[in-house]
Structure formats: structure tokens, C-alpha cells
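DM from R.C. (forwarded with permission)

"hey, sorry to bug you on a friday — could you get me a structure for this? deadline for the figure draft is monday and I only need the backbone to look sensible"
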Amino acid sequence: MSKRWTMAEKKLLGAMLHLTDKEISAKIPGTTPTSVGAARKRFGLLKSIDSGRFKPKQAPWNKGTNYNAGGRSVETRFKKGVPVKPVRKFGEVFPIVDGTGKTYLFIKLQNHRQYPYGRYVWEQTTGEKLTRNELITFKDGNQQNCSFDNLRKITKAQNANRNRNRKKAAESLKLTWGVVKTYEDFGLTPPYKYKSKRKAP
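My reply, with the result:
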């Protein structure tokens, strides 16, 4: 249960902001450094701007120690002589291979953003901002040809309908109905929600 601070304790807390939370808790009975810090934030009693900073000539707590974070920290550190991966420049266009093996072009924007280049070209040319429900496709099927004449705007619903394989779906459905019919022949409940289209005897 959190401590109930009296008005006198609040005033005392406000008068000791130059001290650390540990030092303050030692002067106010029934408090801990954690509860003092939480109370200060709750009451809006923030410390001076320099309270959490290093003072001139102040030594860090781990000076002179061979501190090791443990785990895989040693093997994942940068090694001397190993080249660092170059940082992409603003406006740079570069390829990225997706999970299906297709290569798409992206452009580096501000705040470390990488944006689909085809989408970027469309928006910059037309002046419109595409929504999340809109996609850019490539007329010639080449995902790296991002010239405006090769781009087409479609919705996600149109894209799903375009990629629908009706022949494959029909064959899969025929197989499902065959399994259902076999279960029904043996008087068993099919593992699907479908029912065969045959008439009852």
C-alpha cells in the first residue's frame, strides 16, 4: 500500500530536492528511495536540471574496473579492423529482397525511414498521399521498373481478386468434397463444415 503523505511531509520533501532520494528517505520515516522518487513525480517536485548529471571532475562509478556485461556482449562488439556497414544517405535508392525472393526498390527518407520507391514516385508525381488500402503494382511485372508510366494504383481488394487462382481453388474444393463424401459413406462426422452435394437415399 502506498504511503499517505501529510502536508508537512510534502513541504519537507520540496525543501530537500537538493539531496538524493536515498538521503531524503533517511530523513522521512516510513519511506524508501523508490517511494520518494515516485512521490516527487506525483507531486510535481522535480529536481534541478543538474541533479542527475555528472559534476565537473566527478568519476563514474565503474572507473578502473574491468566491467563486463556478460552474455554475448563480447562476441557482438565491434572488432578492430572490421569494416562498419555504411549508413545510407538521404534520398538513396536501394534494393531489398522480400520473403518470396522478389527484389523491390526502396528510398531512404528522413528519420531512418525506408519507403517503397514505386509508391514514392507515384506520390511525388501525382501529389496524392496513398492510403493503407492502396497499393502500387508494375504494369510490366518488373518490380524494379519504377518509372511513373509503369505504375498502376489499385486497392488491396482488387489485388486479392487479381491474385486469386480459381482453378487451384476449384481443385482444392473438389478434394475437400471427396473427403467429406468418404466420411459420410462410413457414417462419420466430416472434419469440415462442408457437406457433399449428393442427394440422401
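R.C.: lifesaver. Residues 93-162 form one domain.
me: no worries. The mean pLDDT is 80.
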